[in-house]
Design goal:
The protein is built from nine helices and five strands; from the N terminus they run E-H-E-H-H-E-H-H-E-H-H-H-E-H. By secondary structure, the chain is an alpha/beta fold. A five-stranded parallel β-sheet has the order 2-3-1-4-5, with helices on both faces. The mean pLDDT is about 95. It comes from Paenibacillus cucumis (ex Kampfer et al. 2016). This is AAA family ATPase.
Length: about 200
Amino acid sequence: MRKSKLIFFLGGAGSGKTTLAKALSRKYKAAFLDMDILLRPAAEAIMTLQGLDPSDRDSPEYKRLCRDLGYRITMDAALDNVQLGVDTLVVGPFTKETGTPDWIEQELARIGRSLDNTDVRVAYVYLQNEALYRQRITARQSPLDEWKLANWDAFRSSLDRKRVAWPLPAEYIAYIDNSSDDPAIAFAELERRMYE
C-alpha cells in the first residue's frame, strides 16, 4: 500500500514556496494547507483585541501571541488529512520545529503514525540573494509584509537558509533554488524530488 505524503514547504518570505506548493497540489490533487490562511481570522482577532496591527505577521508581539497557535491549527489539519490517507502539502516557515530533531515524530505519534508509514518530505525553497527577496516581497504589495519592509534589518535574518534536523533520508529534503524568472525550472526539480 502506498504511503500518504506529508510535504513541508519551508523558506523565507517571498521565496515562492506557496506558489510552488499550490502548483504541486493542483497537479497531484493533494490537500493544500497554508498556515497564514488557516491562522488569519484568529490572528486578526487576537491582534485587534490587543490593540495591535491585525496585518502584522512578524513582530515579536505577533510571535508571542499567535505563532504557536498557528502551527497547532495547521498541524491538526495536516494530520487529519494524513490519517485519511490524503497527500498533504503544508506551507509555513517551521523554523523552530525543523530545528528540533524529534518534532516530526512526535507530531506523527499524535495520530498513531511514524516515519515508517508516512512519506515525510521537505521542500526548502530559497532565493540566491537578499535583494531578490526584498524585490519579490515589495512586488506582491501585501499588507502582511508591511512590518517586514519597515523593519528589514531585524527581519532579514529570517531569510537565512536553515538546516532541517529531522531524521529523514537526505534525498527527502530538497533545497530548491527559485531565483529564476521561469517558475517551471524550480517546479521540475520540486516534482522530481517530491513525487518521482
